[in-house]
Amino acid sequence: MRKGWFEQSTRRLATVRGYQKPELNSGALKLDSNENYVIPKQFQGDILTHARRNSDVREYPLGGAERLIRAISKFVRMPPSMIGVGNGSDQILDMILGSFASKKTRVLTSDPTFGFFERRCGLYSIPMITVPFSEQMELDAKDFESKFSKADILYLDSPNNPTGFQFKKKDLQGLVRSFGGLVIIDEAYGEFGDYGLSSMTKTHKNLVVVRTLSKSFGLAGLRLGYFVANPQFTDVFMRVLQYPYPLSTIAIESGIAALERLDAVKTAVAATKSERERIIRTLGTYDSFDVFDSKANFVLFDAHGAYRRIHSALAEQGISVRKLGRIGSHGGCLRVSVGTKEMNSKFLLAVRDLLG
What we know:
This protein is α/β, with parallel strands linked by helices.
């Protein structure tokens, strides 16, 4: 037996940078994690009431995931055989990387991209090839195509987190059609964007579209993720790779109930898009800010050298936004989630007072 291997492994892992969660600010106006406060509390109450009435947590949720998959199938209009579920979309991404990638597998993605995915590649020592955003916080499909020959996996979040950028549909479709390896399109913010690519999985066996009920459905605390992919991949993932019971009974029943109440979700998404544009317009009136277009439920802006002061001053007023710092050529980036009209107004008024 080789002695000391456990201690050595622990020391090695201790040097890996984990996913950086936002600070816990009790009582703060929470605009730092892209959570959906626009969806009414009544929606949450209704689905949890349904879940309590239809759950016996003494039992394992045998057959529960299959029932949820059928409900998702109706929502995305894809066959149940092409849908899998997980304990949040991040668990799905983690399992794909852990099962299909290695130190010899190269991942092509944008810089920046979803922080959890980037950190997981680091944990598994998976090499990353990145394409930076332009000064206008945009990506060019040609820059990715020029690196296709060096990559085995193409990962793109659409819309992108943290920038809110989304390719034109034809450009992203072109990348999917042209790339020969595994393509992972992360549509966590898809409902706030202009389009989705789930239907392309019918004709492209190398495509996996990962989605979640955390954002547009406002169910972040239930950890409900799903994906759409070809039936063979889906079968392997759910039957061989996935845990026997990846979702709790309460989460399953809540998800099913939420998918039966789509009117509330559509109303919340429409309101979020409207408020997103108001935030972009208002922040854009300040000469000291560079504000970027967004197709997600957040807005990215560069406050330049004042970003730390603005972040701290907002925090002192009980308003929490995400401090990102440098993204490409922009050195003072902050990201603010789109909340309710009242929450957004408080944020915008605070910014106005800070800038005079």
